[in-house]
Amino acid sequence: MKKFHVPIREVKPARALLSQVPTLAHKHGIVLVYSPACPPCQAMAMEYQRFAAQVRGRIEVMAVNAQRYPQVFEVFPGILGTPTMFFVDRGGIVRTMAPHAGERTAKAMTQFVCSHITSGGACPLGARSS
What pLDDT is stored for residue 94 in this prediction? Predict the structure, then answer.
């Protein structure tokens, strides 16, 4: 995966993510579990950066390199492969964990987050929830 040029917090090691999730108490968060050798991960790298830039300051955007930190699969057993994104609510609870098999665009990622933080109305990130 290309080096991130926007403030995406690279979590090192994966177990540290458990200690960092509670620090999201005042923000929602999104975590991408990726592998540099994964073609779909490579393909979505620029869009994840674009997404991070669009939501800067409103949600925490993090990434875990599963190749370097394979214990992420033990820490979060719901992760079956890469890429996988999961949503963390303001209380630090992982609410959704799903392989990101859909459209891998910044807009789709924003809609994914908005679907968890709104109840059908306007999303504070600028996209409508479904």
Answer: 74
Helices (H) and strands (E) in the chain, counts: 4, 5
- Residue 19's φ and ψ, nearest 5 degrees, are -80, -25
Query: Confidence band (pLDDT; 50, 70, 90) for 5?
Result: very low
CATH superfamily of 9-117: Glutaredoxin (3.40.30.10)
Q: What is the pTM of this model?
A: 0.75
For the residues 64-93, what does the mean pLDDT come to? Answer: 82
Instruction: Tokens for 66, please give them.
Output: 């599963």
Return the closest-CA partner of residue 84 out of 97, 74, 95, 96. 97
Whether the predicted pLDDT of 111 surpasses 60: yes
Quote the pLDDT of residue 57.
Answer: 82
Distance, in Å, from the CA atom of 2 to the CA atom of 107, rounded to the nearest integer, reads 20
Contacting residues for 74 by C-beta, under 8 A, at least 6 apart: none
Burial state string for 76-101 with b = 16 or more CB within 10 A and e = fewer than 16: beebeebbbbbbbbeeeeeeebeebe
